[in-house]
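Phosphotransferase: structure, please.
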Amino acid sequence: MNTSLQYLQQLLPVTASRKQVVCHGDIDHHNFLRAANGKLYLIDWDNALIGDPTMDYANILHWYIPKEKWGVWLAQYGIEKDEYLLQRMYWYLVLDAMSYIAWHFERRQWGELEKRLNHIQSLNKEIKKWLMS
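Here you go.
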């Protein structure tokens, strides 16, 4: 957890002054609805906010797209995969994981809390490996 806090503090300036857009804020497979015509809709905008779109990209890529395809996926949306983008993506992933840890702790959901703690340890390993390369 200490690594996560250090990473958030170290890279806070990287997230500042970013282009602000409408973000969903809760990208999850449960929030997509496929209509009878085959179109896919993003629903449940309760957590929508004005912010860095990287927070939504990070969740889509991290949870649903294999890492080796991130560059291709981003290019389809006109987004360049560079070191700066990756720093911001991991920053938002760590922040999201930590907020879920607090949320499950407050509700005494120990099983879910343990899953989130394991997830943040996994993120910390990825960050360390990535920073060392």
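Notes: Residues 2-12+21-132 form a domain with the Aminoglycoside 3'-phosphotransferase; Chain: A, domain 2 fold (CATH 3.90.1200.10).
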